Amino acid sequence: MSSRLLILAWKPNDQATLRVGFVVSKRISKRAVQRNYIKRLLSEAVRTLIKDIPPGWDIVFSARNQIVGVSLPVILQDVSTLLRRARLLESSSSTNAEKKELNTRKGLSL
User: Fold this and answer.
1) Radius of gyration, CA atoms only, the chain
2) Residue 11's beta-bridge partner residues?
3) Nearest to 65 by CA among 31, 14, 110, 25
4) Which residues of the chain form beta strands (DSSP E)?
5) Contact 5, 75 (CB under 8 A)
6) Taking the C-alpha atoms of 103, 104, 109 and 110 in order, what is their torsion angle to the nearest 10 degrees?
7) Which CATH fold would you assign to the domain 6-106?
């Protein structure tokens, strides 16, 4: 499953844990610093939603070229949309988590 920024691959695992991986190839950026920054943004986006993802899945996010220069709120929205489309995320609680995260980043509190 894919979006403008990411490609999502998932499959069930035999463990009672959730494993998440990120792929940012050299085709995205030849600079390791930029690739690592994109991975940190993806990791932060997943971290805010991880409590709403059930255990027992292996999930891999592969970045597309359009992700370069995109901010965290946009990536968070994209990750959330992909997880909901894959039915790996409960839509009601994830929406609340997204709103809280975005408001926290803006300096607001709920």
Assistant:
1) 14
2) 58
3) 25
4) 6-12, 19-23, 57-63
5) yes
6) 60
7) Ribosomal Protein S5; domain 2 (3.30.230)
Read off the tokens for 103.
Answer: 């408001």
Q: Provide the pLDDT for residue 5.
A: 97
pLDDT at 106 over 60: no
Q: Does residue 16 contact residue 37 with C-beta atoms inside 8 Å?
A: no
Tell me the pLDDT band of 96, cut-offs 50, 70 and 90: low
Per-domain residue ranges of the chain: 6-106
Q: What integer best gives the mean pLDDT of the chain?
A: 89
Which residue bears the tokens 């992700």?
A: 67
The region of weakest confidence among 8-12, 24-28, 86-90, 98-102 is: 98-102
